[in-house]
Amino acid sequence: MTDVQPLRRSLPRIPDRFAAFGAVLLAVVVLAALLAPWLAPYPLDEPRPLERLLPPSGAHWFGTDQVGRDVLTRILYGGRTSLTIAVAVLGVSAAVGVTLGVVAGYAGGWVRDVIMRVTDVFLAFPALLLSLALAVVLQPSVNTVILAIAVTWWPWYTRLAASVAASIATRPYVDAARCLGVPAPLIIVRHVLPNSLTPVLVQLSLDAGGVILTSAALSYLGLGAQEPTAEWGLMVQQGQTLFTTNWWVVTFPGLAILVTAFAFNVLGEGLRNALDPRRAVK
Amino acid sequence: MLAYLARRLGQALLVVAGVVVLTFAVMRLVPGDPAVAFAGPKATPEQLAEARARFGLDDPLPVQLLTYARDLVTGDWGTSLRTRQPVRDDLYLAFPASLELVGAALLVAIALGVPLGVLAARHKMRLPDFGVRLGSMLAVSVPVFWLALALQTVFASNLGWFPIAGEYDTSLDTTSPLTLWTNITVVDALITGNWPIFTSTLEHLVLPALVVAAYPTGVIAQMTRAALIEESGQDHARLERALGFGETSILTRFALRPALSPVLSLIALVFAYAIVNGFLVEAVFNWPGLGRYAAESIRSLDTPAIAGVTLLVALVYVLANLVVDVLQGFVDPRTRSR
After folding, report:
1. What is the ipTM of this complex?
2. Partner of A115 for a Cys bridge, out of A77, A104, A176, B191, CB 3.0 to 4.6 A?
3. Closest Cα to residue B280, out of B32, B102, B23?
4. Extents of the domains making up chain B
5. Comparing A55-69, A241-255, B204-218, B253-267, which segment has the lowest mean pLDDT?
6. Closest Cα in chain B to A255
7. Is the confidence at residue A9, as pLDDT, over 60?
8. Can you give the pLDDT at residue A2?
9. Are B67 and B236 in contact (CB under 8 A)?
10. CA distances in angstroms from A116 to A129, A162, B177, listed in the order given
11. Which residue, A238, A269, A225, is CA-closest to A47?
């Protein structure tokens, strides 16, 4: 049997391995952060005034900063800060957002209208903007960043969960449960919630990159993590005046943000294509 | 269509009311007494009481909220504690500069993103597609402030191809002063034929606009690709294929127009995001826009100014969404029922 030859020769097909690629990249980032105390070549926060601003070398792969701290060490520990913020923000937003969304989607009617109008108001404030306002009100710290971003992030999950829950609420098994007299809260917890979670998980992966970028931006503006916390955005801010003369002080923390956000985005994109057959290209 | 317009407008007004309440709440959370901030630390008790009465700080909170809303509607956005100017006048100077930056960035993003999306869809699952997808994911993952610093260092400081910071060469103000119409420098220079300032602004605009454009370019390319692939699987595409049209002309002649409808709704969202992202870029390139104004206000804990910026950006977002929804209601009547 011979294949039908296409009329025009086209470029070779490449299999879609985005999810796997993203997962591997993310695993490297997470492991590097988790194992920071063992991987780091130097102790955290040990300024050596005689070794200020050394360029990358065998002893200091990523060089040293303006007070003589090893940049690689601070980047490894900085991963802990960024990933902690991402997990906390997404955990809080998803818990609040999905709960409200599932209730809105299942209940419908005026309950849905009220919840949706409230999310509209919060969505009108871009995350970074409301975070700016809140970060001014509260004392700048890692916890402030978590709170500020979570306040602006939950409505997205409410919207998503509401639309999924609304379609699940019309399924026959939900009707059956209702006819058997199962109370609404139990239907929501037992049937609607578990079946609404898949798209939320994909969205969480896609959003983690955005949270990391926003938290780094807040720290860059001086409204987030404070010295001596190892945080990538803060490292860029502290080194920015040295960029022309000591490029490594700014370049490597920025690359760390880029790689982490990229890993989450690639994983999310891959998961979305794998789980949503309509989006996958055959 | 009229009923749809009315309902959509009502929704938008509700959101605006919510935005005002939320802004008010955030402002009231600020630690410290606004009267002290205005009158200064050395103010006498009489001066404090006067400031208190002037801002209505003795009234109950709901009354303050209503007064605040009434002032906003009548155009009184409060007085900046830092510049001592009405916040509205400050915003009237700063916002056009941000609009100029974001407008230029979105033009770049559409001009690059749509063709890249077409290219990816045309060669889907092949090398160009993977290049565009990976490239657009990098573009949405890059921290803007870092990209701004990198481009500024390489192309302005080291190579000297572009100016380092600012909106235009201010020494031109003496040789060829600019007449202000819209406060958008590049537009004013163009309509008054002020070529030295026009070219200087364009030169200053290149680097910051490219940085702000990175995120929207990536998003638009991804969205165009997805919409085109969906569209080219529709029945009309099969008919066109049967009639002998090539894949490229099916995509560009028939599939692109319906595919651009979801891309359009995306642009409203990206627009507001780009303004706030622009804040960081403005900080690096010292662009005299909202971002710099916000940064300076934050540093001096200037609550009325911060509230003004927050409110303005939220209003722009609501308005952009409204415009896009109405446009889509015209282009695609199916969306009206939502």
Report:
1. 0.85
2. A104
3. B102
4. 97-288
5. B253-267
6. B142
7. no
8. 47
9. no
10. 21, 9, 50
11. A238
Write out pLDDT tens, residues A170-199: 888 888 888 888 888 888 888 888 878 888
Of A14, A126, A220, the CB nearest to B145: A220
Please count the other Cβ atoms lying within 10 Å of the Cβ belonging to residue A247. 18
Contact B143 A240 (CB under 8 A): no
Q: Is the pLDDT of residue A137 over 60?
A: yes
| DSSP state letters, B48-60 | HHHHHHHTTTTS-
pLDDT at residue A6 greater than cutoff 60: no
d(CA B251, CA B24): 49
pLDDT for residue A87 is more than 70: yes
| Nearest in space to A29 (alpha carbons), one of A248, A263, A251, A214 | A263
CATH class entry, domain A14-37+68-279: mainly alpha
Identity of the amino acid at B162: F
What pLDDT is stored for residue A173 in this prediction? 86
Chain A residues inside the 8 Å CB shell of B138: 258, 262
Please tell me if residue B295 touches chain A, with a CB cutoff of 8 Å. Answer: yes
Q: Does A118 touch chain B (CB under 8 A)?
A: yes
Burial class (CB in 10 A: 0-12, 13-18, 19+), B113: buried
Q: Which residue has the higher pLDDT, B178 or A256?
A: A256
User: Which segments in chain B show pLDDT lower than 50?
Assistant: 338
Confidence check: pLDDT of A1 > 50 = no
Task: Evaluate whether A79 touches A256 at the Cβ level (below 8 Å).
Answer: yes
B223 versus A87: which is more confidently predicted?
A87
| pLDDT at position A279 over 60 | no
Distance CA A84, CA A92 (A): 12
| Max intra-chain CA distance, chain B | 86
pLDDT, residue A188, reads: 81
Name the class of domain B97-288: mainly alpha
Please provide the size of chain A in residues: 282
**Rounded distance, CA B185 to CA A226, Å?**
37
Q: Which helix (H) or strand (E) holds B121?
A: helix B87-122
Question: What are φ and ψ of residue B86, in 5° steps?
Answer: -60, 135
In chain A, which among 176-205 make CB contacts under 8 A with chain B?
none
CA separation for the pair A87, B135 (Å, rounded) = 26
**What pLDDT score was predicted for residue B169?**
73
Min Cα separation B282/chain A (Å): 12
pLDDT of residue A213: 92
Q: How far apart are CA A213 and CA A202, in angstroms?
A: 18
Return the pLDDT at B335. Answer: 65
Option in A133, A254, A258 nearest B310 (CB):
A133
Q: Report the DSSP beta bridge partners of residue A64.
A: A70
> Is the distance from CB of B250 to CB of B226 less than 8 angstroms?
no
Note whether A280 contacts B: Cβ–Cβ < 8 A: no
